[in-house]
Amino acid sequence: MTPQKIEEPQGPQDNGTSASTTVPHGCIFSSGPMFEEPDLMIDDEDLMIEERLDSGDSQYEKALGELEAESKAKKAGEIDEEQGWRDFVDDLTVTWRNAIEVETRAFEVEEKAYVQEKQAIGEEKKVAEAMTKLAEKARKIAMEEKQKALEELKAAWEHFDSLREKKQALRDASSSGTARGRCQLMDEVY
């Protein structure tokens, strides 16, 4: 029996419920199955096939055989297609796993390169620090040499000035003094 609805309440009910929450009532059930099992259904076409087979129609048997062969081939094709999809999925899975492996290896190589770069930076830093120390030492030595040369230059200049003064004194003495005075002055200078 299939239920058939006669009336559906509209709006608020006397009992305080709304139409959307009420259960439909007043259904009339008709006789007859609500549904039939597909396996239990007997199709007119199936009856006709059996009748023609019973009659011994050879062309019909041949056509039916071809139809069954075609159906089997179709099922085999579906199985082949399904296997093809499974193979395709398996291939994709293998490709995906290979890609993950390659990515993992690339990451490991990148990590090693980073460590090597860090070490190289550390070594470069050490080399740069050593060069800086050498440059500072060379600068200090150069400054000491410059200072020493400056002091020697001052000493030479002072000696030159004193020689010039003595030479001037000798000239003055020779033009105005005696020979004995000149000799005495020369002994003091030299």
From TrEMBL:
Q: Give the span(s) annotated as Disordered.
A: 1-33, 168-190
* Biased composition range(s): Polar residues: 12-23
Q: What is this protein called?
A: Uncharacterized protein
